[in-house]
Design brief:
With about 110 residues, this protein is of the alpha+beta class. It has three helices and six strands. About 20% of the residues lie in helices and about 30% in strands.
Amino acid sequence: MSEEERIFFENLPETVTIYRGCSLKEIKSNNFRFSWSLDKNVADFFAFDYNKNLKIKSNIVVRTVSKNSLIAYFNGRDEQEVIYIQDFDTKFQLSNKFDVVAEGQQ
């Protein structure tokens, strides 16, 4: 993380809403990869516009997590990316539930 990213990360609230645009297969598995975003529009891009997902049914997952369950923050590509590892979250998890946002193409 850059110094600016570190300061931003340290100033996040204790509870954070994160978004992930991913395939329905990933959603059904409940085994999510580690790149999430603080910006729903970024997740929307990855779910519905990103070339890899054009032929894959996708959606957006929304999860509210403890700031302590986040590993890092990066904004080098204006993605407001946070690193969230689901297995690590068991210590800090507010809930094992997540919401799927039914917007865009599916």
